[in-house]
Amino acid sequence: MSILSLENITYGYIDGNSKRTILNELSYTFEKGKFYTILGPSGSGKTTLLAIAGGLEKTQQGKVCYENKDINEIGLGKYRRNYLSFVFQQFNLIPYLTAVENVVNVMEITDNDVPKPYYKTALNLLHQFGIVQTKAERSIFKLSGGEQQRVAIARGLATNVAVILADEPTGNLDTGTEREIIKIFRLLATQYNKCVIVVTHSDDIASLSDVQLKLEGGRLVERM
């Protein structure tokens, strides 16, 4: 089922005395229940594309639609709060909160229905991703990089959103942990029916996705 569509997206910036276009009338439709990866060389616009899809950056031409509705009509704040979640390379967890408190925090600000009590729901969710209660109640600085990324993914799921966007989410992890995290992303798509879109530079990660996309000439091309 179609969930997120990019329609004739164009984006560029001034480089010296000339304008460089990195996204050129780009169009693509993403579906629920699929795990996508987006590949491309540094500077090709992968992160910018993800930011536009997530409502963090405005397009210069074209539009982003969620369930066929322009996200500007939804309201960018509401869109980011209720319809999608980001998972970053640096985790972006709140440093003075415990792991479980980081998850509870997003539950408290969403407009979506989340089972109460939030603390118990957050603990159960973290447990599904291998973070037991004793670790969930620790400072995030006492968790490994892989564990922090699992917390970040659990936080992304905690608000019952349909779309998960991830920007180089395994860039700071060792190969073994990277594989474990990618298996979680596959699980989110296949068992939780989420639309998962991961920006990566790794062909190994891309090979594990349902759909491999390459950002080429400012447009997304499916790799066969």
**CATH hierarchy, class of the domain at 1-83 and 163-169 and 195-224:** Alpha Beta
Task: Tell me the helix content.
Answer: 25-40%
Count of discrete alpha- or pi-helical segments spanning 4 or more residues: 9
CA radius of gyration: 17 Å
Distance between the termini: 21 Å
CATH superfamily of the domain at 1-83 and 163-169 and 195-224: P-loop containing nucleotide triphosphate hydrolases
Sheet with most strands: 6 strands, mixed
**Strand composition percent:** 25-35%
Q: What class do helices, strands and sheet pairing give?
A: alpha/beta
- H and E string: EEEHEEHHEHHHHEHEHEE
CATH topology description of the domain at 1-83 and 163-169 and 195-224: Rossmann fold
Can you give the mean pLDDT? 92
Query: What is the count of β-strands?
Result: 10
Oligomer: single chain
Strand order of the largest sheet: 6-7-8-3-9-10
Indicate the CATH architecture of the domain at 1-83 and 163-169 and 195-224: 3-Layer(aba) Sandwich
Shape summary:
globular
Low-confidence stretches: none
